Amino acid sequence: MDTKAPMPAERLLDLEDVHVHFPMREGLVKAVNGVTYHVDKGEVLGIVGESGSGKSITARAIMRLLPRNAQAAGGRIRLRPRTGEEFELSALERNSRAVRQVRGNHIGMIFQEPMTALSPVHTIGDQICRTIQLHMGLDKRAARARAADLLARVRMPRPQQMLDNYPHQLSGGMRQRAMIALAISCNPSLLIADEPTTALDVTTEAQILDLLRELQAESGMAIVFITHNFGVVADIADRVAVMYLGRIVETASVDDIFYAPKHPYTRALLNSIPRLGVDQGRRLPTIPGMVPDPFSVPAGCAFNPRCTHAVAGVCDVETPPQRQFANGQSARCHFADTFAEAAHA
Amino acid sequence: MTAFIFRRALLSIPTLIFISFISFVIIQLPPGDFVTAYAAQLRQSGEYLSAAQEAMLREQFGLNDPMLVQYWRWITNIVFRGDFGFSLEWNAPVSTLIWDRLGLTLAISSLSLVFTWLIAIPVGVYSATRQYSFFDHLFTIFGFLGKGTPDFLLALVLMWIGFAYLHIDVGGLFSPQYQNAPWSLDKVINLLTHLWIPLVVLATGGAAGLIRVMRANMLDELGKPYVETAYAQGLSERQVVWNYPVRVALNPFISTVGWSLPALFSGDVITAVVLNLPTTGPLLLKALQTQDMYLAGSFILILSVFTVIGTLVSDILLAWFDPRIRYA
């Protein structure tokens, strides 16, 4: 692909061959090893992967909020928010004025731990107002009124009073609502949700997912939804990208991911989800082996030692290319096309 | 909040009563009493009291009364008349002795506390946000040196430098010619040339430790998710650091600021002795050495009361500063 190619009109966020490395005493960890994905305007992209697959680090690379010991080792990240201007995020410094204009304004972010992701010594209202005042140039009163509106939009009871509450006075689900209100406070074009429901119980999780879907429909913002839970992805995503060891191994629409997965890793993950009423009394299939340690990623396809379809001499030698299919699906597997019709029936 | 303050203030009253009682018992502990000591003092100047005279004095001072009655007399004198008793060693009322030195003591101690904070907080924050940088290592070295060097040694070295190289007279707070002179611009300048040594000594000693505390607190806080949330709002690094983690990292400072109240009162005793400062510290030391019971007892009482009040102040400040405590 020509790296100078302009982004298509519907494109909001575009990642091309993004690399993030961590130099460690034991060696170089390539936490993100050539990730390419895009998000269109108003679309919900689910990113699924195990712990350590690099999904959160990729999100941090978009925000330019990588840990201090990380190296942005290449690739290109472009963002074209609703306002029309184009940001080449990968070229921006962590603390630069341009990237600060993007954060909180064009991209909102919600985090995994609602318990600790809000400042314990500031009220909910103060925290939201600070962001509003920073980006929207409103005075104190207007910002406070807007913050109350936002709390009402995320379905907080008694929004006016909630403004003056501290995070520790709220339950986990309420805190995550406050966090969402903070993230959408400046009408971002993109919301990055980094495992926003992992720390919540399933009932609250369902409510938060409903809320996110509603907000997305109302405002037309795009969402990058990071999770390790396929069930959540099925609930909320339009398209899904599956990550394994720093690479996107498969991208497809949510239906194709579930009904016609083309990468053995995706298939194995889906097979290891327990289903009610199916295969009773049998052991749940699991993926053999362990996630390799990050200092010795296998040669060739990183998944080959655990893959039941691996062919010696091919999979453990050559890095599989990205295979593109007519329906927009793509998979990084030498034999992706052989699984084309073999949807698990 | 008001209820919280009221409850805490109420709770400190029994503590204060208990402390005053203990202080009184300490005053009574040494063998003999005021009259014995007075008689001994007279003996030194060649006068003698007969046993009958001693007994009469005892009766007059009420020393034969039960301990509780004496305690009641002592404490009511303090509370209602500000009379802390009489120092035999100085031949003057205890309250006058302490009062004379209190102004300078508080001035030096609070100035050094302010300097300590002015140094410790920014340096601690810098060290944490630039962990393992050149200046972090430098501050760490100075911090440990400052912590490891006894204050009195630093005081001696500075006095020597001041005397040998800067040709200023050192020790005390004034040169002899200004000692009893009325206040004037020259006297103030003279005071400043003397004041810097105790300030440097006290501030470095205190700051060295607090830099480490602040650095450790900040490192804890900087790793917390709310800091990343703040960055994700588009705030600059300076806005994030000073508005969020510093606010939380200051809590241990707030919770101990009250304890500096008794320290403000007693000052740093050894440094004050070395530098010959007219503060309350050396007075306390001397009172203990000479068994000047009313003076020493009053000191113990005042220090303890200040500790209780200081803790109360800290609790209130912390509750005001940290909502998690206010609503707990």
Q: What is the percentage of strand-forming residues of chain B?
A: under 5%
CATH third-tier fold name of the largest domain in chain B = MetI-like fold
Q: What is the CATH architecture term of the domain at 11-244 in chain A?
A: 3-Layer(aba) Sandwich
Distance from first to last alpha carbon of chain B:
11 Å
How does the overall form of chain A come out from the CA principal axes?
A: globular
Strand tally of chain A, please? 13
Shape of chain B: flat
Largest sheet of chain B: 2 strands, antiparallel
Descriptive notes:
Chain B: This is ABC transporter permease. Chain B: It is found in: Cell membrane. The complex is a heterodimer of chains A (345) and B (328). Chain A has a domain of 234 residues: Rossmann fold (3-Layer(aba) Sandwich). In chain A, 28% of the residues lie in helices and 21% in strands. Chain A contains ten helices and 13 strands. In chain A, 45% of the residues are buried. Chain B folds into two domains: 76 residues, no CATH class; 228 residues, MetI-like fold (Orthogonal Bundle). Helices cover 76% and strands 1% of the residues of chain B. In chain B, a hairpin with a 4-residue loop joins β1 and β2. Chain B contains 17 helices and two strands.
Topology:
The complex is a heterodimer of chains A (345) and B (328).
Chain A lengths: L10 E14 L2 E14 L3 E6 L5 H9 L7 E2 L3 E4 L7 E2 L8 H6 L4 E4 L13 H13 L3 H14 L5 H4 L9 H12 L6 E5 L7 H18 L2 E6 L2 H7 L2 E6 L2 E7 H6 L4 H8 L51 E2 L5 E2 L14
Parallel strand pairs in A: 3-9, 3-10, 7-8, 8-9
Antiparallel strand pairs in A: 1-2, 1-4, 1-5, 5-6, 10-11, 11-13, 12-13
Helix pairs in contact in A: 3-4, 4-6, 6-7
Chain B lengths: L1 H27 L5 H11 L6 H11 L5 H15 L4 E2 L4 E2 H36 L4 H15 L2 H14 L20 H38 L2 H8 L4 H7 L1 H5 L1 H7 L2 H7 L2 H6 L5 H10 L3 H29 L1 H4 L2
Antiparallel strand pairs in B: 1-2
Helix pairs in contact in B: 1-16, 5-6, 5-8, 5-13, 6-8, 7-8, 12-16, 13-16
